[in-house]
Amino acid sequence: MSEAPEIFDSLPYYDDDLEKFPILKQKVEQELARESKPPQTHHPRVPPTVTLFANNPMLQAELARIESHQTLPPLDTIRYQLPAPTSAPGTDEEWQAALKNAHAQLEHQRIRHTNLALMQTYGPNAWRIHNYLLEETAKQSEKALEDLKQLTVDVNRERKNTQTRIGTQLTSLETRWTELISSVLQIELANVALDAEIDRLNKKEAELADV
């Protein structure tokens, strides 16, 4: 059978020696300063770091740009222009390239017009649904956060009540232990005194017997 994991818990609501005796707090801080730095590796129970956009190099590059506070590169507006051949009257190849660019610009504008028509027809409802889902997700996240905060408060309150209750018992037991130790010491001192008195009486008896 596997042994249950050991739980080491302090008693911060009962052990207040550091507040009562500043010299102890100073010694603790000195010991902590001499401690080695914590390991760089995470605890085994801590999940590994999530790599964002692992399957999308373009989004990874954009995220790296934002993290490095680099400005957004300017938009390429050349593809939205219709440049004519630079030479006059222009070669057939240059006019063919300009014609292909004009066809591409026309197709691009046609697709934009189609997308705008679809957006005007279906966009508002899709946006409302998207906002509704975001609001519900935000509400669920806020509720989970509040529940976690309340659970943390309940756990700390229970710890404080338990430590305060047990602390009273510990104080009573410590006082009783001190009284018992004091009684034992008094009995030992009395025994020593009795032994000395017995030795004195024995010596007195031996002296009287010799006379």
UniProtKB/TrEMBL annotation:
<keyword id="KW-0539">Nucleus</keyword>
<dbReference type="GO" id="GO:0071013">
    <property type="term" value="C:catalytic step 2 spliceosome"/>
</dbReference>
<keyword id="KW-0508">mRNA splicing</keyword>
<keyword id="KW-0175">Coiled coil</keyword>
<comment type="similarity">
    <text>Belongs to the SPF27 family.</text>
</comment>
<dbReference type="InterPro" id="IPR008409">
    <property type="entry name" value="SPF27"/>
</dbReference>
<dbReference type="GO" id="GO:0000974">
    <property type="term" value="C:Prp19 complex"/>
</dbReference>
<keyword id="KW-0747">Spliceosome</keyword>
<dbReference type="GO" id="GO:0006397">
    <property type="term" value="P:mRNA processing"/>
</dbReference>
<dbReference type="GO" id="GO:0008380">
    <property type="term" value="P:RNA splicing"/>
</dbReference>
<protein>
    <recommendedName>
        <fullName>Breast carcinoma amplified sequence 2</fullName>
    </recommendedName>
</protein>
<dbReference type="GO" id="GO:0071011">
    <property type="term" value="C:precatalytic spliceosome"/>
</dbReference>
<keyword id="KW-0507">mRNA processing</keyword>
<dbReference type="Pfam" id="PF05700">
    <property type="entry name" value="BCAS2"/>
</dbReference>
<feature type="coiled-coil region">
    <location>
        <begin position="131"/>
        <end position="207"/>
    </location>
</feature>
